[in-house]
Amino acid sequence: MSSLKSLESEYPIIDSNFHKFCASHAIFTVEDFLLNDVYVLVAFAECQSNSKELKQGITQVLSIIDSLHPPWMNGVDLLTDAQRNKQVLSTGCEGYFNLNFLTLDLLLGGGLHEGQLTELVGPSSSGKTQVGYLLVMADWL
Q1: Among 5, 67, 110, 137, which has the minimal tally of Cβ within 10 Å of its Cβ?
Q2: Beta-carbon neighbour count of residue 42 at 10 Å?
Q3: Where are the alpha helices (H) located in 2-50, listed in sequence order?
């Protein structure tokens, strides 16, 4: 991982004072910076006499990181993306398997989800292979 010193020549706000501040919090690389809580760093920066420059340096490092990587996605965004872009393949077992009044599709949340691995688990001779064959045939037809 690149050191913060390597950014100094290209970004003047990341100067020796910023490096000293980061070093006092055991931040020497960009990876160290990512592992720290940004809000805590900003709170510590506000206690310094040169807080404005330190906060600008923190913002600069964050913008460098954001420009080099795709945007971060939170769990809600990932779920929305999965619901919008993934298909649910029906097993075709709406009425074939009655497991305690639940059908296989209902048990699987609507069917087999594209991009997910579905594992069938059960004791010997419980019908796992038959369910697998039925699912293959339902998809093939």
Answers
A1: 67
A2: 14
A3: 16-23, 30-35, 38-46
Phi and psi at residue 92, to the nearest 5°: 75, 15
pTM: 0.50
CA atoms within 13 A on the CB side of 64: 20
Q: Rounded to an integer, what distance in angstroms lies between the CA atom of residue 86 and that of residue 78? A: 11
- Region of 26 (left: φ > 0; alpha: ψ -120 to 50; beta: rest) is left
Split at pLDDT 50, 70, 90, the class of 140 is low
- pLDDT, position 141: 60
Separation of alpha carbons 83 and 64, rounded Å: 31
Identify whether the C-beta of residue 62 lies closer than 8 Å to the C-beta of residue 36.
Answer: no
**Domain spans in the chain, listed from the N-terminal domain onward:** 4-68, 81-140
Q: Distance (Å, rounded) from C-alpha 134 to C-alpha 140?
A: 10
Q: Which amino acid is at 72?
A: W
